[in-house]
Amino acid sequence: MAVDEEPEPPADPEQVLASYRWRLDPEDLREVVDDPEELRTVRQRLTDKLASALDNRSRARLLSLRAVASRVLGDLDDALDDGRMALTYAEATGELRRVALAQARLAHVLRWRGDFTEADRLFAEANSAELPDRLRAALHEHAARSCYDQGRLMEACHHFERALDLRGEGDAELLARVRIGLDAVAARAAERGFGPYPRGWDEVLDRDRSPVPARDGGQGLWGYADAAGDMVVPARYTEAQPFSDGLAWVRGPESDRWSLIGPTGEVVVGPTYLAAQPFSDGLAWVVRDDSGWLAVNTTGEVVVPPGFGDVRPFRKGVAAVRREGWGAVDAAGQIVLPTRYHGFHTRLADGRYVDGFTDEGLAVVDLAGRKGVVDRTGQVIVAPAHPALLIHPVAFLATNGVGRWGALDRRGAPLIDPVFAHPNDVITQIESLLTDTTPLL
């Protein structure tokens, strides 16, 4: 008697979406779905998975993917609700890549709704240099489409060009999509011109465009000038630091102590400190006497008590500090990493140096010449055991005792054996292991 074969379980909706190859409309540069019913089924299965997803990571991922499906199906109100909720859950994880994906998927929904100001801001906020190049390229590609919708065609071209710089070589799918985008730009430009001059990230993000230090040649003193070069704060200071967080430290000729001023020269804190560093994350390190560095907020209130011999700027709520050794404090002044290390040596795989902790909240610490990795909560992810160590967007590159390079995963477990002469060879190996070759936005 024949035994009936069991029906195959339905494909996982996340895998279905990950393998989806969207077709772009060559005129509006929006994704087109050939089988809406299939996509509705995928969306329903995402909803089923959400019913049992309890942790922030899973809910952020599933909600933002459901936002993608709803957007392509034209259900933009549902997509917006899911996108905003997904970003809330992603931010609760504190994971840079997860937050960037949620920001980008929400921005894509906003672009389809015509909410370009918020969409462009989210694309810009998401595009951290610490993310994998393939994701950064996708962010630039989608930012280009948003600019295209607005008639900012020069700006769109700049984003397309940046996407190709990051991932153009060997990425046939990206090349094909960018080619469609550039053809659309050329056709529209022939009809209407290239539109406004391209904006920089600062303008998109509406970052503070405070006046900059400028010297009065006659008196040799410093003041501040606006973008047009006009002096908006008179030249009356011996020393003047750039504005940060809307405030600047200045020192007048009549005092050896630093004062704090606002953008029109109004005094926020009178001459008080022997040394001062610019504000970062709403806090500034200052020295009042021989008791060491302390941190104040934008009103001059002491937030972190004195006692540190050396300090680094706050970044995402934590700062590297030195007492008997190097460690870290949070914005409330609590020691989150014991001051037992010989230094911070945070270098990224692309060669850049970070002063303390990365945006993701990671730092490379040195203990007796051996490098390890800690996070902003003080957790040791990689014990200090490596002569050299670099932070890669999805791994850690590290050397062994004879200078050969390998990789550890983000939990500190071995990923690639240390057999390579150069870190670039390890990066190539990591690229071959990644499964999300086309980030789904």
Automatic annotation (TrEMBL):
<dbReference type="InterPro" id="IPR032774">
    <property type="entry name" value="WG_beta_rep"/>
</dbReference>
<dbReference type="InterPro" id="IPR011990">
    <property type="entry name" value="TPR-like_helical_dom_sf"/>
</dbReference>
<dbReference type="Pfam" id="PF14903">
    <property type="entry name" value="WG_beta_rep"/>
</dbReference>
<protein>
    <recommendedName>
        <fullName>WG containing repeat-containing protein</fullName>
    </recommendedName>
</protein>
